[in-house]
Amino acid sequence: MVAVSECGECAVAEDRRAATPEDGVLTRIGQAIMLHRAGDREEARNRFADLWQEIGPQGDAFHRCALAHYMADTQDDPRDELDWDLRALEAAEGFVTERPVVTGAPAGASNVADGPGPRHPLVALSAFFPSLHLNLAADYAGLDRPADARAQLLRARASVNALADGEYRQSLKDAIDRLERRIGRAAGPPR
Fold first, then answer.
1. 105 or 169: whose pLDDT is higher?
2. Which residues 6+ apart lie within 8 Å of 163 measured at CB?
3. Separation of first and last alpha carbons in the chain
4. Coil, strand or helix: which one is 90?
5. What is the pTM of this model?
6. CATH tag, 8-98+112-186
7. Of residues 149 and 127, which shows the higher confidence score?
8. pLDDT digit string (tens) for 42-80?
């Protein structure tokens, strides 16, 4: 994962957890994150894997997105990290594009996701997009796929502009710039 402040997504997850205290899955994701940050990568990975099995492919999109996003950070193989980052993006994109349409409601009337499981403010899930794209760009750069990395950086830059001004947004913009420069240096001089 690309380091972005001490994790703006964590703040999003914390806000979400505070809004729905009955959400034990987010609590358990948070516990695994703490294990990883304390240096117990293997135990964090094991707990994330157990949670992933428990949630399942039809589970709550916010849970799947957050879990896959952090599971990627525990991977030893860069291809596995890419796979988990792609799962996180898939969960987020699928949720945003496949939400049920409320008949008779004005367009954009609800900023809360409907469906099974906890109700999520869309802003909570959409706040992940810049970081998801940035992580994918870093994954592709690490796998020597600069064209894919640049494509993800463009998506990261576009989605970061949708965020409110603040420290999280600025830290993402700075991280995008740093990765962009790194990819540019790795490409060498233009031919």
1. 169
2. 127, 130, 169, 172
3. 31
4. helix
5. 0.76
6. 1.25.40.10
7. 149
8. 999 999 999 999 998 888 888 999 999 999 999 999 999
Tokens representing 6? 């001490």
Q: Where are the domains of the chain?
A: 8-98+112-186
Q: Which two tokens stand for residue 94?
A: 């699928």
pLDDT at residue 189, as a whole number: 54
Q: Are 87 and 64 in contact (CB under 8 A)?
A: yes
Locate tokens 């135990």: which residue? 43
Of 128, 125, 103, 130, nearest to 113 by C-alpha is 125
* pLDDT top residue among 97 and 95: 95
The whole-angstrom separation of Cα 89 and Cα 21 is 25
Q: What residues contact 33, with CB distance under 8 A and at least 6 apart?
A: 10, 44, 70
114, 102 Cβ separation under 8 angstroms: yes
Alpha-carbon span 68 to 70, nearest angstrom: 5
